[in-house]
Structures are given as C-alpha cells and as structure tokens.
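User: Last request for today: this protein with pyridoxal-5'-phosphate, please.
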Amino acid sequence: MTAIRPQPGIMDIALYTSGASSIAGKSHVLKLSSNENPAGFSDAAKEAFLRAAHDLHRYPGTDHARLRGAIGEVQGLDPERIICGVGSDEVLQFVTQSYAGVGDEVIYTEHGFSLYPLLALAVGAVPVKVAEKQRRVDVDAILAACTERTRIVFLTNPGNPTGTMIGEAEIARLSDALPRQVLLVLDSAYCEFADGYDGGASLVTTRPNMIMTRTFSKIHGLGGLRIGWGYAAREIIDVLNRVRQPFNLSEVQLSVAEAAMRDTAWVEKCRADNAKWRAWLSHALTELGVAVDESSANFILARFASEAEAAGCDAHLRDNGIIVRRVNGYGFPEGLRITVGDEAACRQVVHAVAQFKGLR
Ligand SMILES: Cc1ncc(COP(=O)(O)O)c(C=O)c1O
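Assistant: Here's the final one, the structure of the complex with pyridoxal-5'-phosphate:
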C-alpha cells in the first residue's frame, strides 16, 4: 500500500461531463448543447490563425501585452488591469487558487456554473450553495450565507443555465455589503448577449473587491481555442499573474483572440442575430406550452411539466438528430437548456418539440 495521497477535497471532485456532440447511428447532428456560436468565428480570426501557423517554433510572449491592449481599446479598460487565461475557466482557477485555501468557504448560487464548487474543492475549500429566488440570484441570501470563513462569492450574470440576470444596482449592493475579506467574482461569460450590459466592467473599475471574467468561447465563437480574460484592480491582477504560468497562452491563441476582439462589426452582427432568434424561439416554445424565462444569453432554459416530459422531449429531439442539454445537475430535472442556433436550427427545434407535444 502506498502512502501517496491527494490533497483534501480532490477526491470529492466529480469528473466533468461536457455536452454530448454525437448521437449513435446519426452522421449529421444539430448540436445545441454547449452554447456555441452558430456562425462560427470571424474571418479576421481565421486569417490570424493561418498567419500565426508560420511561427509555431517560437515561444509565445509571456505578458500578453498586445491582446490586453486590444481588449483595453475595444472595451475601454486599462490593459494593466487585465489578465488572460486558457478560457475564463483558467482565470476562475487562478482566483480560487490565490484567494481560498483549506477550510475556507466559497459561495456559489443554486443554479450557478458547475465549475465553481469543483474549483473550491480543488484547493480544499468548502463550497457553499446558496438558494436562488425564482431562478434568479438572491443577493440577500448570499449576504446571509457569508461567515468569517467566506473568501469568494461566484456569481454568473446572465446565469447559466437560467439565462436570467440581476441588475447592476443589485450587484453594487452585494459588492458594497460583502465582508471585507470576500472577493466577488462576476462571471460574465454571456454578457455580450445581454442588451446594454458591460458585464459589470464599470462596477469593477471603481471597486477593489470584484473581478469580472470574460470569454472568447461564446460570442466570439472560439470555444475550441480556449481563451478568456479577467478584469480587476491592479493589486488583484498582480496576485493572479503570480500563479499564472508564463506561457499559458500560445501565439496562435493570442493572435486569434486579438483579431476577434477587434472585429466589432462581426460581434455586433452575432449579438443582433442571437437576440432575434432567441426572442423567436422563446415565443414559439411558450406557444407550445413550454415555460421559458426571459433569457439574456445565447440559450434558453425550457421547463417542462415534469422530469419525465423533459426526458421524453430530449429523446424525441435526439431521434431527430438534435442535441440539447439536460440540466438535472443544475437543479432543473424538468429542464432542457437549448442553445440559440441560426434560423434553420431554431425552426428545427420548434418543429420537433411541437411534434413531441402532438401539435404537428
Ligand atoms: C458561466 C460560464 N462561465 C465560464 C465558462 C467557461 O468558459 P471558457 O470556455 O472561457 O472557459 C462557461 C462555459 O460554458 C460558462 O457557462
């Protein structure tokens, strides 16, 4: 018997299961399970990818200055307050590793992103789940759950898988009322899909106890390349940079992300298309008797009458080559999270749900 043991908490981590991407026996599927961009990525990003392929023998830069500069310019933020990571996942990991340890408490909300408790366990901290109210983050419940052991509060806004949002005033109220030792992490992976929302950037600019995380995986359509970023006070970015590996991002990732960030016209088009088809899909499903909250993201949470009905509809969609996401693990056994696809995809989903309901 060996005495080699993993650190506390690590064996409590359940292995992550990602959205399915195939259906046995089907060569063509419509994948609407991972909130990917139906338009793919911009031509500018593709050109940058091909250009960067000539320099694969070179180590990348370590300070990400060009990408941080581009993000700063486009978003109107100080590049010195930005950190880039392998997906926003990695930035979230830097935060947990830097600010929580054995026995500390990390708060996340009932329907929040499933990664947060895993990150807490990985550093030996205790994940504390706080109830939401009507599928919306409840600021008062979060404040009531804080103790002197709380170090981090994770908040997804817009939420995944709910798609719902809380307003900036609520976030400001939370930030102002948190105990002094608590860092508020505003996970804004879907903020570009919300109307007139800067992801909380302006709040973070004036608050030393917040970090905003963002991703290139959603509106920029680059989930396969793994790039994200965070924005916080310089003191926090300085801490996170100490745990970041110097070569965490390749020149390919950096160059493609920079081109994608600068292609604001493409982003704008994706935002408009998503808003149009999200509204259409929500309305059409509601007409079919499926409950849908107003979504501010690039997916909707369809709630059925029961777990059995959700499972039945999921099976019917699969029979028709459509993959959506069951969300039992997020506390919605009766739900299916459906990524907003392009027009054809949305029409296909609605047609299949109508068939399932016996209405077509
Ligand atoms: C709420 C939320 N945060 C973060 C992420 C991670 O994104 P990334 O691909 O940047 O690691 C996701 C991915 O689905 C997400 O849904």
